[in-house]
Amino acid sequence: MIPAKIFLLCGQVFFILLFAPLVSGFIRKVKNNLRMRKGASIFQPYYNFVKLFSKNQVVSKHASWIFTATPAIVLSSSLAACFLLPVFRPGLSLNTTGDLLAIFFILALGRFFLALAGLDAGSSFGGIGSSREMFISSIAEPAAFVSLFVIGMNSSSTSAAAVAGEHFFRVSTLLAGFAFFMVVIAETSRIPVDNQETHLELTMMHEGMVLEYSGRSLAIIELAISLKQIIFFTMLSWFLLPFFNDTQWQWLQFPLKLLVISMIIAIIEVSFAKMRLFRVVDYLGFAFFIALLAAVSACMGI
Amino acid sequence: MVSAFLLSGFLITAFLMTIAKRITALIRTFRLQSLFLFLYALTMAVAGKHIELFVICVSILILKVGIIPYVLARIVRRINVEEDLGLIMNPQISLIIALLLSYFSYIFAHQIIPKALAVELATFVVSIAAICISFFIMVSRMKALSQVLGLLAMENGIFLAAVAITGGMPFFVEIAFSFDIFVFVIIIQVFVYRVNRLFTHIDTSKINSLKG
Predict the structure, then answer these.
(1) Among A39, A179, A256, B160, which residue's Cβ finds the most Cβ atoms within 10 Å?
(2) Counting Cβ atoms within 10 Å, is residue A123 exposed (0-12), middle (13-18) or buried (19+)?
(3) What pLDDT shows up at residue B168?
(4) At B159, which helix (H) or strand (E)?
């Protein structure tokens, strides 16, 4: 029986990998339509991937092995996190090897190497991007962890399989989910914190880090980033939209929930302006306090 | 099930109001909170099939989501009040205080109804917390308009408490109450205009200097 499960699991991860760029494309399409533009097709990320993958890449002669190793490390960390995520069937994951916190830490490994690679080539924009990314992630982490602990408290386990099968609808979980939502916006570099569409030198964070990459490496990094995004959205869908969890219809409700979350993210991106970098501290501080409030309410039992 | 969503939304808007830095943001958040209150009362009305509660829902929708925020926004436009709200404390400390207040409200609620159902307890805790936080908003702001908004948010909390405990106040009390709030906003409008004309600003901390 065990090989069958591993076969299914690999299929699930492969499907998520195929599905991940579609979410980015969909969000971009919705944003453009909300702005009364036509926008690129939702399959544009795939075309970009193919285009970039067939191009030559340029590596600075000052860059060390970190620069060349980073795309592989980032992609494999996202994939490893993906293996811990039950998506299509309840319990279809390696849930004995890691829990929600492990997912977050494995993704942090990828981010660490991206920040190193940004510094590695020695361009000034890469350095700016890395320092900003580290700044943001260091203040996003407390909020993320407190909210994950609250969710762990409510389902009496931090295992992803237990959380994904829970029917929450408790005030504390929803508050924690809201805090986690604010963190996810920062982590996936969406608008109130960062802007994915711009390459303006002064404001870019994530784009600054990967500025030196081209060709195949860039394609792999973009794939890894969209995979990380879909992992975060899946976790959000457990916390904020806990309808019909733990049923046989999980494979059907997963795309629907992703659709809802992508729509919400797109609407937020269109209707807010990007914050100043130092306002982000207030933003994530608010997320942290909402997570603390969730912890207090979980202790109250509401 | 739906009520958990609405209650957490209500609580989050109360927290947002403690840190709102601009008066327009404060008014918008108040409108959002009233919308959550309306939806909550609507679910209660549907669940309990109270016809009176339906009428009260409509009055919330018209007055608190519609007219009152509109009137307040018009005051802001008319007197060109500066956007700065005159916060006494920085946002982080205000959030810590709001957090402590919600914990105290839990202790209080637990003393009063120790054997309540989870949903009722949650509603009661959220409403008491909203009342306390709105009181804190009134204390910690220096501008007259933000104090008015604190009072209105407090009334939201009181209404939520009433719905939680008794399934809505008696019909005439609630109608009289909403009408009271409405008249209060109209009077405040005149009052703020006058304060503004006499002192050219509405910062109440500066009026204190008039004391002998």
Answers:
(1) A179
(2) middle
(3) 61
(4) helix B144-166
Q: Which amino acid is at A210?
A: V
Tokens standing for B172? 């005439």
Rounded distance between C-alpha atoms, residue B118 and residue A301, angstroms: 8
All residue ranges of chain B with pLDDT < 70 are 80-86, 116, 167-169, 200-207, 211-212
**Distance (Å, rounded) from C-alpha B150 to C-alpha B14?**
10
Alpha carbons B85 and B103: distance in angstroms, whole number: 27
Provide the token pair at A265: 């993210």
What pTM was computed for the model? 0.91
Chain A residue with Cα closest to B108: A300
Q: Round to whole Å and give the CA distance between A281 and A278.
A: 6
Q: Which is nearest to B36 in space by CA: B65, B59, B72? A: B65
Give the whole-number percent of chain A exceeding pLDDT 90.
53
Where does chain A have alpha helices with state H?
Answer: 2-34, 44-53, 65-82, 100-120, 124-154, 160-164, 171-187, 206-209, 215-240, 250-271, 279-300
Structure tokens at A34: 């909300």
Give the gap in angstroms from C-alpha B95 to the nearest C-alpha of chain A. 7
DSSP-derived secondary structure letter, B115: T
Closest CA to B102 of A282, A148, A181, A302: A302
CB-based contact B93:B33 (threshold 8 Å): no
> Has the ipTM of the complex gone over 0.95?
no
CA distances from B42 to A139, B28, B192 (A): 39, 21, 34
Q: Which of A170, A282, A292 sits opposite B99 (nearest CB)?
A: A292
Q: Are B19 and B42 in contact (CB under 8 A)?
A: no
Residue B1 to residue A300, Cβ atoms within 8 A: no
Residue A302's pLDDT is 76
